[in-house]
Amino acid sequence: MTAIAFLLVVLGSLAIASGQINPSLVNEKVERTIDLQSHLVKISSTITVKNTGSSAADSYHVALDPLFKGKLGFIGAKTKTEKGGDDEKNRLEVEQISVPSHKDYQFYRVKFSPALAAGASKTFILTSVYGHALTPHPAQISQKEKQLVIFDGNAYFFSPYKTTTQQTTLSLPSGKVESHTKVNPTNKKDKEIVYGEYSNVDAFKQEAIRAHYENNSPFLAVSSILRHVEVSHWGNIAIEETIDIYHHGAKLKGPFSRYDYQRAQDGYSSVKSFKTMLPAAARDVYYRDEIGNISTSNLLELEDQVELELRPRFPLFGGWKSHYTIGYNIPSYEYLYNKGNQYVLRMRLVDHIYDDQWVEQAMMYIILPEGASNIELSTPYPVQRSADQLHYTYLDTTGKPKLVLNVRDTVEQHIQELEVRYTFQRYALVRKPMILVAAFYLLFTFVIIVVRLDFTIQKDVAKESRMRVQSVLEEVQSLQDRRTALYQSYEDEINRYKQNKDQKIFLQKRKTIDDGYKDLDTKIVTLMSHVKAESVDDADRIQEINRTDQEIRNSLQGSIGLAEKLVAGKVNKQAYMDQETAAAAKRKEWIGKIDGILATF
Known about the structure:
Blueprint: H1 2-17, E1 25-35, E2 41-51, E3 57-63, E4 72-79, H2 87-90, E5 91-92, E6 94-97, E7 107-116, E8 121-130, E9 134-136, E10 140-141, E11 148-154, E12 163-171, E13 177-180, E14 186-189, E15 192-201, E16 208-214, E17 220-232, E18 236-247, E19 251-252, H3 258-264, E20 274-279, E21 283-288, E22 297-301, E23 305-310, E24 321-331, E25 336-339, E26 342-348, E27 359-367, E28 373-378, E29 384-385, E30 389-391, E31 400-410, E32 417-423, H4 431-452, H5 461-500, H6 503-534, H7 536-568, H8 573-599
Parallel strand pairs: 1-12, 10-19, 17-27
Antiparallel strand pairs: 1-2, 2-8, 3-7, 4-5, 4-8, 6-7, 9-11, 11-16, 12-15, 13-16, 14-15, 17-18, 18-24, 20-23, 21-24, 22-23, 25-26, 26-32, 27-31, 28-32, 29-31, 30-31
Helix pairs in contact: 5-6, 5-7, 6-7, 7-8
């Protein structure tokens, strides 16, 4: 008999684990709060469950109310403790299951750890968030009207277990209620409507309730977001989000008057702006759309985050939408960790867009460095991972691995970190710099070869002759510049001689200048003979330079003799000055003539 009882207990436990509802569990007390203050319906249920059976229960089944079918965004549970404590430690695992005996309902299982002993009770908090669960009524309003919405719900906690006592509280944004369903006992006070307490409620019991009330909160929803995360091992992670957002509240009836909107400050349900929270290390932030940069935005750097106030080009009324892109950079050391060649990237799948956000479709691209391998993904909640792709940018050869992730109907509770683990060899960091070095080396080598080699079939004799003549002319020009400098040296020595009247020193300096002058003359004459064989005209120009130079030389010899007479007292100072001024002007004219000839080379 004992063996048979044990077998029945084991079979019962297996049945419960496979999805059957445990009849031994009873909801002793349920306190449910339905938050209707925003466009989302947030339900928080504090449940005290008791195990009336003879064996431990390791899970609790949650039945989703049929009224919210297809509208669930998040469901989670945590153990309630008197001192509060860490939510992560108190969190209970929740998973979706199917119950064969109730295929029409959607079920979730909350796992108890440790299992709930026979005769014991446990209190935990069940949280769920629903989108598009409020219906604007009327469906269209004018610019000046306030928005009214309808909430349809259940007065009772929809559960597969019997409930001993329960109470439901509707929390409203204001006390303006057009109408609400009464299920005795019902009590309305200020911004709350309280249903219950109700006793001994059967499993799966339903009692429809409706509340018609004023709600002017931002009815924003993101229809799609594409989030690019590109990881660089050079110290940066680039993030860009392309967002389609729309207002799903009561549609605007009639025309929109911006004048009335700004003057009367009406448009109660419209959205003028909203705030996006970025990581504290975000920098180089931009906000733009198809037209270009949107300047109507404000950036405020706080201690633990960056607050970006986004103001669309026009206010959003019901049925209106906006498309925009925001992007920023963050340092990789805050999100990328490694041990040797093993790397871990911790990054949010979805991030904060606005308060009480509802994202219908989120797609994320995670672009890893080229050469990353052995990629493993770990997510805090189920996501759809499509086939990995390759992303090509500058200087990529094999392409960068790109992870493609999709998730639907997310809310703020989904702002959690995922982990991407991969292997990356450090030497791959220098691959692109080496490619650049090799490319420039090959380019310069090619240019050197092209410039230095002669690819013509037949030599151009005239061109080669002209190049040789031009080379000689450039050398003549350099020698003449040096010879012109000697003209000034002669004049400087004459002036010093007039001052110190030292004949011996003057003769020494003059001899040195004469030697240099003769050397330059010889070189120019030699070059002229070389040019004459190639170009008679160019040789004549050099000959003209030499003739003019001889005139300058003769003038300088005259100035030397005149200075000697001045020192010896054979000529007075005034006569010397008159003659020397005339000679200097003539030399200047001749030097200008030489410069003119050189300019034609």
